[in-house]
Write a structure and sequence with these properties.
Blueprint (H helix, E strand, L loop, with lengths): L4 E5 L33 H13 L1 H16 L3 H14 L4 H6 L2 E3 L5 E3 L1 H4 L20 H36 L3 H14 L4 H6 L3 E3 L2 E3 L1 H11 L2 E2 L5 H6 L4 E4 L3 E5 L3 H21 L14 E5 L3 H11 L4 H5 L3 E3 L4 E4 L7 H21 L5 H16 L4 E5 L1 E4 L5 E4 L11 H10 L6 H6 L7 H17 L1 H11 L6 H8 L3 H15 L1
Parallel strand pairs: 8-9, 9-11
Antiparallel strand pairs: 1-10, 1-12, 2-3, 4-5, 6-7, 7-8, 10-11, 13-14
Length: 508
Amino acid sequence: MKHTRSIVAAALALAAFGGAHAVRALPPFTDASAEEPKDNFGPGFTFYEERAKKLLKVCGVKVWEAAEIAKRSGFHGHAIEEAERAIEFDPELKDAREYLCYVKDKNGKWVRDEEAWNSPGFNKQNTRTGKDGKQEPIESFEKRIEKWKEEVLFPAYKFVAQKYAELGDECAAKGHPDQAKKGWESALRLDKDNAKARKGLGYKKLGKVWLTDKQEKARVDASKGVVDKEKSSWDDFFGAKMNVVVSGHFRFVSPHPVEELMEYAKAAETAYAYYLADFGMDPTGDAFGGDRMEYVVCGPDDQWNKYVDAFASTDKEFTRQLGGTGQGPLRRCVRSKQDSNAVSRTDMIVHTTVHTLNQLVWKVYQHAWVDEGLAYYYTIKVLENTLTHCVAQKETKVYGGGSQKEGGLKTWDEVLNWKPKVKEIVLAKNDTPFRTLVKQRITELQFEATVKSWCMITWLMETDRDKFIDLLKLLETAKDGEQPVQSIYEKGLEQIDDEWRAFVRKTY
């Protein structure tokens, strides 16, 4: 069997994105009753302290709820920590105070009962010992703690973060910028993705990453193509004058107008930035090892044929029929067929850029469902459409001897038809099983299966971006995708498939 990775044309639209996660940290509550006269700090300080005391009081209750659940679960160390945080928000929170062995003295002030606090009966450590005296396995215990954090503690922190962000907005509306910044920064220490706080502090969101003004400027600057007027070696190769445009991470060579090449640069750089940002990386960072990715976008077919004759490494006649081909990870050639245009060529550039990132960032090139699914995902995200899908050539035995070449070809021609078509197939119980999908190579992956790959990728990305990132990390070194998927999602492929089908029936 031999195969050549190449490109053919296809069509579609629509997609959505997401991802937000809490950070494990809680700023101290500022006690508005400090002995220092408040007016010495100015009206902004006074406003902040007075509003904080009212607005954040409810946060004490929320954090105490998390502490109480920890206490009942045997997570006593965590329970004490969160109870102490709770009374920072509400010093008069009776349940938390009593749990921490506080009593009121004759003057009505809370003081700790040291005898009770230090008694053997007051458990200050997390314990795995049950009522039956048996110890819970450490793996099970730690898993319960993580579940408590994800389902109880972090949502409580996000609630508190939102209150801090609201306090920041109130301070800003009253003309107290320093206190507004204090509220927003307190929110971000709890929830790094709090939109109110990020907006207040001037951040812009790109994928999963919030960018400072400096980072956003660097990203925008990288996407601006610059014309290289020096003679190119491609001029001699093709025997024609080629325009060259260079951007932060790409180089485009083509006889097409410079303006078109500028659009290539903008689209490719946008895909590059979105891809890195969605996975928590610096969108202006270097994914190409200090080099630029080069696209040679041919003009007339004689240029395409000349490139294929010189560089196609396998079946040249198969490659000659397609819309593009690659030469190493950082060079792609795009054919300008008679029915192609600037839009379809830009689409192919974005699609193959994502394949290159899949290969260099995650090394998931051999997991075809992920590789092709992500290529669709980001093309749709950047261009709100996708016109390209990949096939590969393979030789198969035929009856009577000999062999024939085949590849997965596009069969759905209607733009915007993927989601309804997928739902139709799911309702007919005729979609490619997920187990089959994760095992197929590009030589086996038919077009309908690639569309399911896109649907699965979109669903997994939007449901839990961090888990999907963990999956990509495992897939880097895995020959078979089954074990990594089951390890990350802690369920079988059939159960995941059933949940995805239920999602499709409900939302598509």
